[in-house]
Design a protein that fits this description.
single chain, 20% helix, 51% strand
């Protein structure tokens, strides 16, 4: 009987550890044209239909981002905006991020650089342009990433 209880306990712990949810991942946010570094916490919650990415700003709750990735439709949703995948992508080191866009009108295009496995890399045209990384980088490295993002966004 003790072996049976131990097996159930081991199975329960395995299921909890393999659930895919990740909490309190430190993320650094870098805005274009701003030298300050934002500190955020990322929480990822998986369900069958979607992956929720919650970026919580440590000091300003208004700068927090709640993003949902719809697995079946390959869509990204922030607030009431639905972003669809475009053909452009961006590679940072060995990771490939896809680009998702929404066009409200011809003068308003918002772009997300996103990976369903890694989360949000950048927001372009959404308030201020931001890059989100797990590592701290130098200001000139941030500018280089933005330059590469804009080049990849404008490749036909």
């Amino acid at each position: 009987m003790k072996k049976l209880h131990f097996c159930f306990l081991a199975l329960a712990l395995l299921m909890i550890s393999c659930s895919g949810n990740q909490n309190d991942i430190a993320i650094y946010g870098y805005e274009l044209g701003d030298r300050t570094i934002q500190q955020l916490k990322l929480n990822i919650k998986l369900t069958d239909q979607e992956v929720n990415f919650e970026y919580t700003h440590k000091k300003d709750i208004l700068k927090s981002i709640n993003l949902k990735y719809q697995v079946q439709e390959d869509l990204v949703i922030i607030d009431s905006d639905t972003f669809t995948k475009i053909k452009n992508s961006y590679q940072l080191k060995t990771f490939v991020y896809e680009m998702y866009q929404i066009k409200k009108n011809k003068d308003s295009i918002k772009t997300l650089v996103f990976s369903p496995d890694l989360g949000l890399l950048a927001t372009l045209g959404i308030g201020s342009d931001c890059v989100f990384l797990e590592d701290s980088i130098a200001p000139n490295a941030k500018e280089f990433i933005f330059k590469e993002l804009y080049i990849n966004l404008n490749i036909e």
